[in-house]
Design brief:
Length: 364
C-alpha cells in the first residue's frame, strides 16, 4: 500500500509518499495550498504514479474523533465544525484535503488526528476546575496536541530500548516551534502540557505558553487591550520571540553565548518551564523510565537537552555529553547506569499517520 501523507501546517504543506515498506519515495515541502503554489502542487501530485490511499494530518478532532477515520462528505463537514478550536491549522488542513481530493478523486482518504492520542487522558488530567455549567454546555477540556509525534516517539523508544511499551513510563518532549510534553504510561497518554488550545504549556517559538488568565482579564479591563490584540500577541509575538526578539532557538542560543541579556533571560525561562513540566509529567506516572526528545529543537539543540537534564537529576536523568552531541540518528544519550534512560528520536509524523491509515484499512 502506497500512502501519500499530507501534513498541512499554518503556512506550509509537507507531502510524503511512502511505499509498502514505509520508505519515502517522493517528498516535497510547499507553501500552504492556494494562490501561486497551486500549479506547483498539482504538478507534483501528477508525478507520483500509483497512490493507494491518502493520510491527512488533522490537528483537532474535538471530543468526537478519538481515532483515525475514513473521510467522506459528512466527516469533512464535521471536521470543519471544529475549525474554531484550531483556527490557525484546521482551515489549512481542509484546504489541503480538498486540493488533494481534486487531484486524486478516486483515491480513499483518511484523517489522523493530533488530539486522538490524548483521548485517553484520565478525568483528573483532562478536566478544568471551572463551573459545571461551562463543562456541560461546551466541549471545554484539555485536548492536548502533537499526538501523532508523541505516539511515534513512544513506539520508536520501545523499539530502541527493546522493552514492551506496556512496561514503560515515558515523558516525550516534542520541542519545536510549537512545544508540548506527554506523560505516556503503558503506551497511553495520561497527561500533557497543551490544553484546550495549543497555547497552553511550555514557552514556544512565538506562543506564550501558560500565563495567568487573570493577567489577560486585567489587560482587557484596565489596559483596554482588545481581544484581537491579545490573540495576536499570545500566538505570534510571545514565547522566545517576545523574550529575546527571535523565535529561532539557534539564533537565541548564539545570542546567549555572546552575552545578550535578553537571550540569557529567554533561555532561562524556557529551561525553567521545561524542567518543571517534565517533573510534573513524571509525577503523573509516579516515576520515569525514559525521557525522550523529539521535534526540531529536541533533535538538534544538544545544549538545550544537556541543560534541561541538569535540573532533572532527582528523576534519575543524566545525559552523556559525548553521546548527546555525537550523530544525528535515533539514539540513547543518557549516561550508563542512570536510572532513567534518555533518548533523541526524529519526529516522523508521516510514519505514524501511515501506520494509522493501514490499521484502519486492514493492511499490513
Amino acid at each position: 500500500m502506497r500512502v501519500l501523507v499530507v501534513n498541512a501546517g499554518s503556512s506550509s504543506l509537507k507531502l510524503r509518499l511512502l511505499d509498502a515498506e514505509d520508505q519515502v519515495v517522493a517528498t516535497t515541502d510547499l507553501p500552504a495550498p492556494g494562490g501561486e503554489s497551486e500549479d506547483e502542487f498539482v504538478n507534483w501530485i501528477g508525478t507520483l504514479g500509483e497512490v493507494d490511499v491518502v493520510g491527512h494530518r488533522i490537528v483537532h478532532g474535538g471530543t468526537e474523533f478519538r481515532e483515525a477515520v475514513r473521510i467522506d462528505a459528512e466527516v469533512r463537514a464535521r471536521i470543519d465544525t471544529l475549525a474554531d478550536l484550531a483556527p490557525l491549522h484546521q482551515p489549512k488542513a481542509l484546504l489541503a484535503l480538498d486540493a488533494v481530493s481534486a487531484c486524486l478523486p478516486d483515491v480513499p482518504a483518511v484523517a489522523a488526528f493530533d488530539t486522538a492520542f490524548h483521548a485517553s487522558l484520565p478525568a483528573a488530567a483532562a478536566t478544568y476546575a471551572i463551573p459545571r455549567e461551562w463543562r456541560t454546555r461546551w466541549p471545554v477540556r484539555r485536548f492536548g496536541f502533537h499526538g501523532l509525534s508523541h505516539a511515534y516517539a513512544t513506539r520508536r523508544t520501545a523499539e530502541i530500548l527493546g522493552t514492551p511499551v506496556d512496561d514503560l513510563r515515558l515523558v516525550t518532549c516534542h520541542l519545536g516551534a510549537g512545544a508540548s510534553l506527554a506523560a505516556v504510561q503503558g503506551g497511553r497518554s495520561i497527561d500533557t502540557t497543551m490544553g484546550f488550545t495549543p497555547l497552553e504549556g511550555l514557552v514556544m517559538a512565538t506562543r506564550s505558553g501558560s500565563v495567568d488568565p487573570g493577567l489577560l482579564l486585567w489587560l482587557q479591563e484596565h489596559a483596554g487591550v482588545p481581544r484581537e490584540e491579545l490573540e495576536s500577541a499570545l500566538e505570534s509575538r510571545s514565547g522566545l520571540l517576545g523574550l529575546t526578539g527571535s523565535g529561532d532557538m539557534r539564533a537565541v542560543v548564539d545570542a546567549e553565548a555572546a552575552g545578550d541579556a535578553d537571550a540569557v533571560l529567554g533561555i532561562s525561562v524556557y529551561l525553567h518551564r521545561l524542567r518543571g513540566a517534565v517533573a510534573a509529567m513524571a509525577a503523573a506516572m509516579d516515576g520515569l523510565d525514559a525521557l525522550v526528545f523529539t521535534g526540531g529543537v529536541g533533535e538538534n539543540a544538544a545544549g538545550i537537552r544537556q541543560r534541561a537534564a541538569e535540573g532533572l537529576g532527582f528523576l534519575g536523568v543524566a545525559i552523556d555529553p559525548e553521546w548527546n552531541s555525537d550523530g544525528d540518528q535515533d539514539r540513547e544519550i543518557g549516561t550508563a547506569g542512570s536510572s532513567a534512560r534518555s533518548l533523541v528520536i526524529h519526529a516522523r509524523e508521516d510514519l505514524e499517520i501511515a501506520r494509522q491509515v493501514r490499521a484502519l484499512l486492514g493492511a499490513s
